[in-house]
Amino acid sequence: MDILHLTPDDDIQKILDSLSHPATIYLADGEYNAKLWVKSDNVKIIGQNRETTVIKWDDFARKNHADGREYNTFRTYTLCVTGNGCSLENLTVLNSNTDARKAGQCVALSVNAPLFYAKDVDLKSEQDTLFTAPFPDDLVIRYAGLTDDPTYYDGFIPKKQLYMEGGSVQIYQNCRIYGNVDFIFGCAEAYFDRCALISVADSREHGFVAAPAHSLKQKRGYSFIDCDFVCGGAAEGSVYLARPWRDFGKCDFVNCTLGAHMHPALYDKWNDTYRDKTARFAHGNLTGEKPIAPAIWGRQLTEGEQDEIRRDYRAAMDMWQNFAGTGE
Hints:
By secondary structure, this protein is mainly β. The chain has five helices and 25 strands. The protein has helices spanning about 10-20, 100-105, 135-145, 160, 305-325; strands at about 1-5, 25, 30-35, 35-40, 45, 55, 80, 85-95, 110, 115-125, 130, 170-175, 175-180, 180-185, 190-195, 195-200, 205-210, 220-225, 230, 240, 250-255, 255-260, 280-285, 285-290, 300. The radius of gyration is 19 Å and the shape is globular.
């Protein structure tokens, strides 16, 4: 295993591109002004200080790309991970745009890999902070240029960022994730353990934490376990726990606490859709600053179901620990 110690003066992308073995990269304190793509497997990136070791960039959806098109959501990331079995620890990933209403989506971290782990990481942006691939199938077709629509073509999104056969298991432990609209979105089986989901101020009427797009075939979608949903400036009663980005998006909330900024209905069906008929949202043992009156299509989890979610999370952790221990 390669062990590298880097500072903000180093060309991190060049170093990442040169890796041919599993590597642990230690980042010294400071701001790393770089748009980074981790392509190699088994790369660990560990910061010196969670608050002051910062990977920072400022792309946004409505910005014009060098290819003449707008960046679109999925090219705005500050850090993209496509290598399998990579991890982040003790650092911040920041998309520094501060007005998503004007700039559009601004991704901080994008993960498109079968297995990923983050611990003690801050993810900061406003709209679409964390993308947990895979993509919904219809978007893969669109961005791969497989339709007759002349406005799309191969190469709009690199294939390693767009394609991934099978599913993705992602684990976020003790992380702080900031945003206002759909700031956790995608199709991964993702576990959020003791995380703080922080809804920042927004000039729009409502905010949404999660926007899942899971397939009906997936048993697990997003599982929020022992998490805190925290007001970071959002108006009282203005933020929903989740709305389904695609019909069968799945979210489970187990033993979480809710700030006064959370809307009592908890869930939104996504504009004028019928996704309240198909989305799979459920909760158990929620406590909060204000009374809640969950939408009738948001199901109450039984104690047995909550235990099963925790067992599946422990199984995912075992899978990660076995992988990390062997490097394969």
